[in-house]
UniProtKB/TrEMBL annotation:
GO terms for cellular component: extracellular region. The keyword Hydrolase applies. Coiled coil: none annotated. Residues 12-238 form the Peptidase S1 domain. This is Hemolymph proteinase 9. Fibrinolytic activity; shows preferential cleavage of Arg-Gly bonds in all three fibrinogen chains. Contact with the caterpillars causes severe bleeding, due the anticoagulant effect of the protein. SMART domains: Tryp_SPc (SM00020). Its main location: secreted. Signal peptide: none annotated. The lineage of its organism: Eukaryota, Metazoa, Ecdysozoa, Arthropoda, Hexapoda. Keywords: Disulfide bond, Fibrinolytic toxin, Hemostasis impairing toxin, Hydrolase, Protease, Serine protease, Toxin. It holds the Pfam family Trypsin.
Amino acid sequence: MKHRSKSGPHFAIGGRNTEPGEFPHMAAVGTWVFKCGSSLISSRFVLTAAHCTSVSSRDTTITDPFSNGFTPTDAMIAKIIVHPKYTSPKKYFDIALMELDRVVDFSRYIQPACLWGQFDTGNLGKKATVTGWGVIDSVDIILNKECDSLLRPSCSRHWCGIQKTQMCAGKLAGGVDACQGDSGGPLQVKIPLPITTQGSMHYVIGVTSFGIECALPNLPGVYTRVSSFIDCIENNVWR
């Protein structure tokens, strides 16, 4: 299902390759060419950006990202639920759900993410991670980038018109950012589980929405704030 690029890497900017199972909720939207990322949040739903839903009928596959030695899991999209207040090309309310046509079986490499339900992310720390496959070509390996989660006043200084349903993340010095092809993917915080268990818990705090070019100084990426839409998500996913 994945197109293997023979040119140089076209990754999201400033990150490192991930290990299989490191971000088990990551999913790609598309068929032969993956246009956007998304987050598996239940056995039947993925969370993505509303602007990622304008796909043709053939571009309706969600796949587990691992094709570098792992068999991807594909599922067709049965239903797309776009936030009713989203109006393209505006980027407000840039959030959507995709219901899969079947239940996805969980494994070591496929697990749902948790959603952060509080507006304040301060007790999660100041660092967050954005994941995606990057720009231009589809590639086999997810890249992850650690970035700073910026408070809203700081975000508003760099972007006019930012609303409380949005948030910024990146490095103000430049060099780290989501990029074209990462849209719809998660901005997340990884919380280690107790030592009596294995692995970590991922909380998705944002959905990659937009930016200007990639990784430019003083232009952090803008993300849809997940906590602003928890009720809407729960009413559709766990109805």
